[in-house]
Amino acid sequence: MSQLVKSNRSNRRGQSRSQKRENLSGAVQIIPGVRREIPTYELLSDEGLDLIEQNAALILKEVGVEFRGDPDALKLWRAAGADVKGERVRFEEGLVQSIIARSGRRSFIQHARNPKRSVELGGNNVVFAPAYGMPFVHDLDAGRRYGTLTDFQNLIKLTYASRWLHHSGGTICEPVDQPVNKRHLDMVYAHLRFSDKPFMGSVTTPERAEDSIEMARIVFGREFVDKNCVIMGNINMNSPLVYDRAMSGSLRAYARANQCPVVVPFILGGATGPVSMVAAVAQSLVEVMVGVALGQLERPGSPAVFGNFLTSVNLKSGSPTFGTPEPALGSFAAAQLARRIGLPLRCSGAFTSSKLPDAQAMQESVTSLYTALLCGANFILHAAGWLEGALTIGYEKLVLDADYLGAAHTFLKGLPVNFDKLALDAFKEVGPGGHFFGCAHTLAHYETAFHESELSDTNSFENWMDAGQLDSAQRANRYWKEVLDLYEPPPLDIAIDEELQAFMTNRKKNMPDIWY
Amino acid sequence: MSQLVKSNRSNRRGQSRSQKRENLSGAVQIIPGVRREIPTYELLSDEGLDLIEQNAALILKEVGVEFRGDPDALKLWRAAGADVKGERVRFEEGLVQSIIARSGRRSFIQHARNPKRSVELGGNNVVFAPAYGMPFVHDLDAGRRYGTLTDFQNLIKLTYASRWLHHSGGTICEPVDQPVNKRHLDMVYAHLRFSDKPFMGSVTTPERAEDSIEMARIVFGREFVDKNCVIMGNINMNSPLVYDRAMSGSLRAYARANQCPVVVPFILGGATGPVSMVAAVAQSLVEVMVGVALGQLERPGSPAVFGNFLTSVNLKSGSPTFGTPEPALGSFAAAQLARRIGLPLRCSGAFTSSKLPDAQAMQESVTSLYTALLCGANFILHAAGWLEGALTIGYEKLVLDADYLGAAHTFLKGLPVNFDKLALDAFKEVGPGGHFFGCAHTLAHYETAFHESELSDTNSFENWMDAGQLDSAQRANRYWKEVLDLYEPPPLDIAIDEELQAFMTNRKKNMPDIWY
User: What does the pLDDT read at residue B21?
Assistant: First the structure.
């Protein structure tokens, strides 16, 4: 077989720039999400799920949720029949569920500016997006430092170039060199200019959410945006049981525009939630349902994603921990509950506490990501790049995780059983003690038989030595530089680009810089 | 909370040697296997499993299996009604299944010389054992080199010291400095002298298998051994569809002594099996069932383990690949088939192609090990230490994997749902916007709420910097040295030790050294 096909290595020599890009880049091969053909993993029994739902109903009724600084939200809740006292809202059994059941959507399309990259959220569809919200960036050369707009753009380019990341994400890192009140414009512009994949806008204030949506309108057209989802906002609520104005206001801004809030609790067991994962799952259910229902009150039928973010805490040091077994179990349970409600699910990601793209990083990240694949998540944010408990995104980590997502594509396709796959003739041809390398079945299938990683080294020890004895992070370091070097932006209509820039310039002109 | 309990770090200062051992070592805390309280993952439908079984039946009937150089095996098959032509044996539908069903055991105890460490194989029990069969060893200081008897003993000591490894394994590395025909004696002695966990003997010839069993008889008593399983032999058959004399003879030696053969195909898709995983699973079923049935013909009612070892091949280079998605899927299917037969299952492990304990190593190893946990494996050989496609065992890799097995213990316990776990009072006490650190539920549970890794760093970036900016392999390097330094052997009766040594001396004296 080794004579039949030249190795990747020798193939790469003498390639044209476009051939190289084709090998490295998803700009050529478009994969708009992947369908999960394997069953979900059902951890809890129906009885267990019932108990969690009953507990959630008691929390909704007896403890309630606070909406702080958002009188419009309180008004909507009052009109819907909730019990509103001050900023505290309590909910009779079944109220939020019935609001969601009445108008919540089981699945929807998020349109990309390149229609081939539009993704479906819900059902058996799985969409991978990179890490979100990190103030720091890391690479092997410069180590860890605050993220800049250049980092932001680089990371969007790397995400664009990976065929395995279907979605451009949102705040892939905080561009800390830009004013706090203006950087959302630069971020949304970077997604629209340097990628043509679907993306997420700002949520840090309702006004910035509206700016983000307005920029999407420039690209997609006002009318199209009113009827279709083209942008998401990641609404991280203030667990436990609080929505502040920034979050509920931004949530309502997305819903009002018929765009998609991803409603996500932020539960660190023992800190912003109980130390018991089962209780944290009930809390998660309460917090998400209330947020999703608020979106439906703002605009019935608007899209929404059921988010889940659970983790544990090292109770000796108080540090959050990631990729540990308890949140994996919790994610399975939360996913089962999300399926009962019937909303698209965001769950888990490539989580780790590690500061480096090392063994620990991948022990934790793969635990977390494998869980996401099996629990039935539809939208896997943080699927690539995450380091240090969401404080850092790593260049090497991003491409290593994205490479793993390639394997995940194969995994999600499952194991079809049919006559050709059973290959009885191959056994007859080869017989006891024979070799399958040259048999007809192998020759017919070898090119597509197995997924091949671009970054894992499967060479002999001697070849690996000759190639410089690199560990996988060092290979990833070479890889992302090669990808950035070959990057070419997707086309964008000049008039639209100018309109986007004019909008930004105008918005920036009218605000003084704020740096905190 | 951080005031309530001192960190691990400060606790460790000023500890006595025995306190340090208690923290580091499983010699104090004995965990004889772990029960899986979570459901298995059922990848294939009954129809899919039926098709694979039908294909296996056709392979058994039309292609058959060869037993080379083992006339006694052919005699047993002839007597059992199989179709024997030369060394080829073909099986009418249902023959091997009925032999297994008649006398195969659904579960059994493997006794350890310390009765507290005896393990149950089968049912929902899970037993973790270290890597097996590697000619090379690796550590960060000395790099990769051939294994020696000192390495063998060190690795057995590290395995003994890990509370998460229930089993001492077998050929943890090849002690290449010992003659090929004598090293099995040194290996079995090391398991018996430096550990008191259950272990595996030699399989490289039937005579060495018998030597291994004879040494077990010295320790456990001849009569006890005849009635109870105290030693296993890992029978790697010569896939496709061949047992040579070394393997079928050793298999029969273990069965004859009422000891346990672990019957394992060695299927590299595209080389020793077809490129289609579904077909490889059918092949696996054929090869294992024939081996297990042969053991039952040799001695009805003897214990056996259904083994499964599938992997893929990089069809460009011909290198085997590990921790990839296809064998993960294949393992789920093979495990479903093993459950239909009702035998204890050995499946998967911490597989990787990586030469180093790096990100790649753990991307692949965790994929493979997580699969083993969910597929329902009872005996997970290669659960710790594996590097470079089974060519190398790593000191750092061993302790990093073993640490991950700690998390696996928590994962396997699942998520019980009950009144206390639901913690409704905690929500009432804390309320919206509160903090769970100090609430009654947290105070009652914080010490046991979350599994804590010994090797993962969850500190702040600043604390991690102060501690030397070590990656996880570097921390593992410090850790295994500390464990070896604190190692103390379990007690062994002096008379028994002398008898073991006399047996070895005598056997060695009567053979010239063989080095190939």
Answer: 65
Residue B325, pLDDT above cutoff 60: yes
Helix (H, G, I), strand (E, B) or coil at A315: coil
Angle between helical axes of B149-161 and B395-413 (0-180°, round to 10) = 30
3-class DSSP state for residue A219? Answer: helix
Please tell me the least confidently modeled range out of B129-143, B384-398, B427-441: B427-441
In sequence order, the 6+-apart residues with CB closer than 8 A to the CB of A237 are: A243, A247, A263, A264, A265, A266, A287, A291
Give percent of chain A with pLDDT exceeding 90: 88
How many angstroms away from the CA of B385 is the closest CA of chain A? Answer: 13
Q: What is the mean pLDDT of residues A104-132?
A: 96
Residues B370 and A332: their CA atoms lie apart, in Å, by 14
- Which of A364, A408, A461 is opposite residue B456, by nearest beta carbon? A364
Q: What is the DSSP letter of A127?
A: E
Cβ within 8 Å, pair B471-A360: yes
3-state secondary structure A89-105: EECCCCHHHHHHHHHCC
Residues in B closer than 8 angstroms to A144, CB to CB, are 461
Residue A193, both tokens: 């200019």
Contacts of A425 in chain B (CB under 8 A): none
Using the predicted structure, report yes or no on whether residue B7 has a pLDDT greater than 90.
Answer: no
Say whether A240 and B416 touch across the interface (CB within 8 A): no
Angle at CA of residue B247, ends B242 and B252, nearest 5°: 115
CB contact under 8 A, A417 and B52: yes
Q: Where are the beta strands (DSSP E) in B297-369?
A: 305-308, 310-313, 320-321, 345-347
Cβ within 8 Å of residue A383, ≥6 positions away: A128, A129, A130, A131, A165, A349, A350, A369, A372, A401, A402, A405
**Could you tell me which residues are beta bridge partners of residue B145?**
B137
Residues of chain B positioned with their CB less than 8 A from the CB of A5: 315-316
Q: What is the arrangement of strands in the sheet containing B267-268, beginning at the earlier edge strand?
A: B267-268, B310-313, B320-321
A400 or B449, higher pLDDT = A400
For B370, nearest residue in chain A (alpha carbons):
A367
**A chain contacts of residue B353, beta-carbon cutoff 8 Å:** 456-458
Report, as an integer, the average pLDDT of A109-125.
Answer: 97
What average pLDDT does range A73-102 have in this prediction?
97
Q: Residue B242: what are its φ and ψ, rounded to 5°? A: -130, 135
Q: Which of A403, A412, A421, A477 to mutate to test the interface with B (most CBs of B within 10 A)?
A: A421
Name the 3-class secondary structure at A177: coil
Q: What residues of A are in contact with residue B271 (Cβ under 8 Å)? A: 435-437
Least Cα separation, residue B104 to chain A (angstroms): 26
Interacting residues of A331 by C-beta distance below 8 A, sequence separation 6+: A308, A310, A347, A348, A371, A372, A375, A377
Q: In this model, does residue A514 exceed pLDDT 70?
A: yes
C-beta atoms of B415 and A367 within 8 A? no
**CB A261 within 8 Å of CB A299:** no
The band of B85, judged by pLDDT with boundaries at 50, 70 and 90, is: very high
> What is the rounded average pLDDT of the residues B165-180?
98
Alpha-carbon span A360 to B361, nearest angstrom: 10
**Strands across the sheet containing A267-268:** A267-268, A310-313, A320-321
Summarize pLDDT for B459-469 with one digit per residue, the tens: 999 999 999 99
A396, A140 Cβ separation under 8 angstroms:
yes
Taking 90 as the threshold, does the pLDDT of residue A15 lie above it? no
Encode pLDDT of B366-420 as tens digits.
999 999 999 999 999 999 999 999 999 999 999 999 999 999 999 999 999 998 8
pLDDT for res B75: 98
Alpha-carbon torsion B412, B417, B420, B423, what sign? positive
Mean per-residue pLDDT, B42-60: 97
Q: Which residues of chain A does B428 touch, with a Cβ-Cβ cutoff of 8 Å?
A: 62-63
